[in-house]
Amino acid sequence: MCSMTSSSNFSTAQISEFLLICFPNYQTWQHWLSLPLCLLFLLAMGANAILLITIRLEASLHEPMYYLLSLLSLLDIVLCLTVIPKVLAIFWFDLRPISFSACFLQMFIMNSFLTMESCTFMVMAYDRYVAICHPLRYPSIITSEFVVRAAVFVIARNVLFSLPVPILSARLRYCAGNIIKNCICTNMSVSKLSCDDITFNQLYQFVAGWTLLGSDLILIVLSYSFILKVVLRIKAEGAVAKALSTCGSHFILILFFSTVLLVLVITNLARERIPPDIPILLNILHHLIPPALNPIVYGVRTKEIKQGIQNLLRRV
Question: For residue 202, is it within any domain?
């Protein structure tokens, strides 16, 4: 491990690794916490893998809506693999060191894939809007080509806006030690170790994050407002329930994703009033619980996916 110094000429080139200190005030119960985290990780990986395989093998699921769901599952898998294995390695084997480059790579993936997931929810909300508000035009608007263009947009937009976050942090001079009081390399946890002014880093992440997530949320709310307006006009018996059931699973996932994110933001803003370990735990759970629940909610509430999973199990 490289030696750390507080001298003004300290350079980032001297840093070879950081040390991740998870829950500094509760070191003794980390092994117990690792058990539910490991189970949730296995559930998330298994459920998303089954969903992807089901959509791949079932010809009846080769439709734009399920392709978008596949994209969501892929994002969830990458997020889980980026965060949870390292956390479990710290808990089980005390493998706290993380290289300089690996730390900023993890930071980039977390920032970009989290906003990609939000953007995917927005595209899925548009899909439901067209399906309910313009059903006759749905086959001509929501096509396989639309899904490809939407996927390119989701990736390009969020990579371009998220890439400056780790770059700005990597360019800082680190002279306040190499111990990160977190389980993961978040921008703020790492930047606090710098002896440079990090105001621009904080400002950019705040503006970029709320611009991306905020615009997605506004468009999602608008989509569901139009959907609700159309649904309330439907007179046919049972049509309202059928229309709402087509977007019920999607709405549940958006609500849960937004709620967890809101709780995380509030706890970070109120750091002085709550134990510092709470935001750390919530940050980990935010990368774990939504990926575990997303495929389960869709699998339980969507008849076509449920039938596809049953067909897959029969083949096995």
Answer: yes
